[in-house]
Amino acid sequence: MLTAASLCAQQVIDRVVTVVNGRVITQSEWEEQERFEALDQGKPPVQVQHSQEALNRLIDRTLLLQQMAELNFRPPTPEAVQREIEDVKKQLPPAKSATDDAWRETLAEYGIPEDDFHQIVTDRANVARFIDVRFRSNARISPIELDAYYKDTFVPRFQKASGNKPAPALKDVQDKIQQILIEQRVTQDLDSFIQSLRTQAVIRKVSPMSGVK
Prior knowledge:
single chain; four-stranded antiparallel sheet; 8 helices; 4 strands
């Protein structure tokens, strides 16, 4: 009995903060999201802020993963996951990931267990591929949109940055403009899709003191 009581006393209670369609999001996941974002942006480890923005991103990712599971969307390849890992490492000084030991020390510095890090980047690779398939591959930009962006946005910005030098011809920059417009379209479509998922979802916020609201 004493042993059991001792083990119970040593357990850390992980508070539930949100439930998304029955999937529990805990306080430790929220904190880990913030620590991962600092790592991913090449920022030094910072004190957890419990920002609503980080929690919202975690909720949005959960909704997308749930939708993908309903569609039987296949998981990312090991190569895709490895690319995500390398992208994170590129944001850090080389010494932080030069060796396996250095990388493990970096993850420990940010307070992210190695298995958790791998799961986060796996989920991110999966979401990225879903966005490519669902939105980016279907994005089409018309000649009218290209011309409007060139005249109304590209030329004024170029002239302001260059001291009123003549802007390149549209044919010379249309590929660049098309990519800009595609990314804008993808962002808009993704935001609308996530908002739709939120509208249909059952999202319950949990009060730290009194339980589910």
